[in-house]
Amino acid sequence: MQTLRTPDDRFVGLPDFAYPPQYCDLDDDDGGTLRVAWVQDGPDDGDPILMLHGEPSWSFLYRKMMPILAEAGYRVICPDLVGFGRSDKPTLAEDHTYARHVEWMRALAFDVLDLRNVTLVGQDWGGLIGLRVLAENPDRFSGVVVANTGLPTGDIPMPEVWWRFREAIQTAPTINVGWFVQAGCRRPMSDAVRAGYDAPFPDDSYCVGPRTMPSLIPTTPEDPAAPANRAAWAALCSSQTPMLVAFSDGDPITGAMAPIFEREMVGAHGRAHPVIHDAGHFLQEDAGEELARHIVEFLRR
Fold first, then answer.
1. Under a CB-based contact definition with an 8 Å cutoff, are residues 287 and 279 in contact?
2. pLDDT tens digits for the chain (301 residues)?
3. To which CATH superfamily is domain 3-300 assigned?
4. Per the residue annotation, which of 124, 198, 223, 286 is the catalytic one?
5. Which GO terms describe its molecular function (predicted)?
6. Cis peptide before 242 (omega within 30 of 0)
7. Four-residue CA torsion sign, 125, 131, 137, 143
8. Is 53 known to be catalytic?
9. So what's the pLDDT on residue 100?
10. Which residues does 269 contact at the CB level (< 8 Å), separation at least 6?
11. What is the CA radius of gyration of the chain?
12. Which of 179, 199, 205, 233 is 20 to 30 A from 191 (CA-CA)?
């Protein structure tokens, strides 16, 4: 597997994100290895919170939440998905598969970090990947927070706005990641923050991950990932693992999933689920502090 690695100097001076990166090498499922990065905060003996980002962002997305959760006593771990952030970036679209992304995050969480009693926080692809890891390794988790995400099986049509996003990011001559993230927010970002989202991608050759991920989402019942997602959905529906549904009020892509999670997931029953107001798809950027406080309250209860 051929990969690119973003130069370290691209990550110098990021606003409010001075966390030193940690790295490990994972099997790339192609006879080689991939370097995968993560950052963390909080006490080493704290209960772990695994926060997974989505498309086309990276762990920088969680910078507003990390100090609040760490101050509450939790060990906060934010990986960069393969193809994003400081993690290695495969250069061929066919190197990205849904199953590989699930396995890479599973291997990091359990084979490398040996996390137990984990609370998963997943947004966008962070939920699509993380919910699979949870469903397939339930003994490792004690809670889950779903935030503007889903678990598509191809049995229900994707919304038209998602198809427009997919076409835009796959056909644009070049990808301005900071612009895409800003377009998914309700509140304005500074130039420095937009540059932070652009940092992992010096030029378009580094953008195979962002361009490819939408094509990995099951959109038909025959999709290769559909059976595993159906099995995961069935397992999660009957799981007793406590679930917090914390969606924003301004996400046209995943907003319809909030009441489905609340209704279908046993772990979501019997609790109040917050709505994050004046926030778009990237609610961590728009209202990360508020989301973090809801997570602390959920975990303490």
1. yes
2. 999 999 999 999 999 999 999 999 999 999 999 999 999 999 999 999 999 999 999 999 999 999 999 999 999 999 999 999 999 999 999 999 999 999 999 999 999 999 999 999 999 999 999 999 999 999 999 999 999 999 999 999 999 999 999 999 999 999 999 999 999 999 999 999 999 999 999 999 999 999 999 999 999 999 999 999 999 999 999 999 999 999 999 999 999 999 999 999 999 999 999 999 999 999 999 999 999 999 999 999 8
3. Alpha/Beta hydrolase fold, catalytic domain (3.40.50.1820)
4. 124
5. catalytic activity
6. no
7. positive
8. no
9. 98
10. 262
11. 18
12. 205
How far is CA 151 from each of CA 84, 131, 191, 226, rounded to the nearest angstrom?
21, 7, 33, 10
Residues composing the chain: 301
Q: How far apart are CA 153 and CA 136, in angstroms?
A: 16
Contacts of 299 (CB under 8 A, 6+ apart): 47, 72, 74, 119, 143
**What pTM was computed for the model?**
0.97
Residue 225 CB neighbour total at 10 angstroms: 21
pLDDT for the residue numbered 164 = 93
41 is a catalytic site residue: no
Residue 247's beta-bridge partner residues? 275
Helix axes 125-136, 226-237, angle to 10 degrees: 70
Q: How many CB atoms lie within 10 A of CB 3?
A: 20
Active-site residue (options: 53, 96, 281, 294): 281
SS3 breakdown of the chain: % helix, strand, coil, rounded to 5? 40, 15, 40
Q: Is 124 a catalytic residue?
A: yes
**All structural domains of the chain with their residue ranges:** 3-300
Q: Which amino acid is at 187?
A: R
Element (H, E) at 276: strand 275-276
Cβ contact 244:141 at 8 Å: no
